[in-house]
Each structure stands twice: as structure tokens, then as C-alpha cells.
Amino acid sequence: MVTYLDAATAPLRNTGQIRLYGEEGFAGMRKACALTANCLDELAGMVKPGLTTNAIDRFVFEFGMDHGALPATLNYRGYTKSTCTSINHVVCHGIPDDKPLRDGDIVNIDVTYILDGWHGDSSRMYPVGTIKRAAERLMEVTHECLTRGIAAVRPGAKTGAIGAAIQSYAEGERCSVVRDFCGHGVGQLFHDAPNILHYGTPSEGVEMRPGMIFTIEPMINLGRPHVKVLSDGWTAVTRDRSLSAQYEHTVGVTENGCEIFTLSPKGLDRPGLPA
């Protein structure tokens, strides 16, 4: 049975219970998520052919340090980088390295900052140079999946409504939804209850209540949904080598709907795509 508890009195560990945050929590998340969104905005002008993902990683680390924040992925469960950079058929958790980006690549950059104890988690897709129409269309479909998932967030609805909105649109566009990874509760913990599936039916999942904070981060493939994790223990790729894309926002459930904490201040939530 799912239980909910006041986040102000909850222990700082994942107990499987769902935390309900008050105004103090929402205020803390606004600041942490705004910093993450600002970093992702700055990257929009940097991503181009020849740039290495290690250079992106250094920028994310230095940007955080300059603003009093720590990248949440750094040394998380043995992960040694400040961000994840997932290129082309990499679904998620791509590890930055010294290989330069090439014209025509698409890359997801996933950033989470810890600021004053709060976790701001978001990711966006970036085109590298001139990309093919198929890649652009995948990015468009994936962003629309995120938009539709967020539109399903409201008190009293089940979290399955989020997944249903994403799945119905993605599959209607002849794309597939990755099942192996999901969104998650976030706040004072990096990963918390509940899991937010990106597929399902509106009657499934847990009831959304005001004060819940979680990520929605659909991973959409041009081919089949199946993935595999490489021998490094992190990098997940499509089994059929088809392109994959992902966008992510952190949202909080309000009395009337939801607040998106990680919106771009510059309107760059979908960089490289037509407005």
C-alpha cells in the first residue's frame, strides 16, 4: 500500500513512501532547478562539431562550482563525471570522453545540480551541426511526449495517466517508448519514490497529490524499445542501433495542476528545433 508523508519530517533516505513538500520545498527546488536550466541554456551555444563531451562535462562542473552547486552525478554510485552525454543510439547514461561530436549527431545532456540540499534535474536534446530530418523528427516527437506527459499531471489523477499520454502519442508517431528506465521522485534526494513510468494506462500507478515532486523524462526510440547496458555498467544503447532521444523536466504537483521547475529562462527547452 502506498503511503504519503510530510517531507519536512521524513528521513533523508528512500523509504518507498511518497514525500509531500510544502512551500519551503518548492522554493528550494525553484532555485536548484533554475540553475540547472541556466546551465543547459549556456550549453546551447557551445554544442557544435568538434566539441568533446569531456569539454561539456568540465563546463557543467565549473558552472556548478561558480554558483555554489555540486553536480549530483559526480561520484554517485561510482560514476566519475558531472553529467551524462548520450549520443545518437545511446539511450541514457552516456559517459563523457574525448571523442569529438560530429556533424549530424544528436546528443542528450543530462544535468542535476545540488544547491542548498535540493536537486535540480533536467535534460535536453541538442543537434550537432546539420542533422537529418529523421533525427529532427524524433526530437520533435520526444519533446511533444514530454509536453503531453506534463499536461496529464494534476491532483487526483494516477501517475499512469502520464505514461498513457506519452505512450499513445509516441506509438501513434511510429516510435517506441523505452521501458527500462523511468522518471522518479526528486527533491532532497536524487532518486526517490514514486517511479514515473512513460507507458501504461490512466488507471495505473499512484495517486498524484499536491506537494509531490518528480521528474518526467521519456526516452523515445525510432526503432524498437529494447535496450542493453554496455560493459561499463552505465551506458544504455538501443539494441537495434536506432536513434534515441530524451527530454526531462522536474515538476511539482500543485492544487490545480503542476509547476515546471526546470523551464528554460531563454526559451531554449528544445534547442535547434523550430519554435
What is the H/E order?
Answer: EEHHEEEEEHHEEEEEEEEEE
Major beta-sheet overview = 4 strands, antiparallel
Structural class: alpha+beta
The separation of the N and C termini measures 44 Å
Kindly estimate the percentage of residues that lie in beta strands according to DSSP. Answer: 25-35%
Globally, the shape reads: globular
What is the CA-based Rg, rounded?
17 Å
Mean pLDDT: 97
Q: Which oligomeric form is depicted?
A: single chain
In the predicted model, the low-confidence regions spanning at least 5 consecutive residues are none
Residue share in helices?
10-25%
The total beta strand count reads 17
Compute the number of helices: 4
Protein name: Methionine aminopeptidase
Binding site for a divalent metal cation 2: 121, 184, 217, 248
Binding site for substrate: 93, 191
Domain Peptidase M24: 28-255
Structural features, described:
The protein is of the alpha+beta class and 275 residues long. It is 25% helix and 25% strand. It contains four helices and 17 strands. The strands form six sheets. Strands 3, 4, 6 and 7 form a four-stranded antiparallel sheet that branches. Helix 3 (133-151) packs antiparallel against helix 4 (160-172). It is globular and about 50 Å long. A divalent metal cation 1 binds at residues 110, 121, 248. Substrate binds at residues 93, 191.
Topology:
Blueprint: E1 4-6, E2 18-20, H1 23-44, H2 53-66, E3 70-71, E4 84-87, E5 90-92, E6 106-115, E7 118-127, H3 133-151, H4 160-172, E8 176-177, E9 183-185, E10 192-196, E11 213-216, E12 219-221, E13 227-229, E14 236-238, E15 244-246, E16 249-253, E17 258-260
Parallel strand pairs: 1-2
Antiparallel strand pairs: 3-6, 4-6, 5-14, 6-7, 8-12, 9-10, 11-16, 12-15, 13-14, 16-17
Helix pairs in contact: 3-4
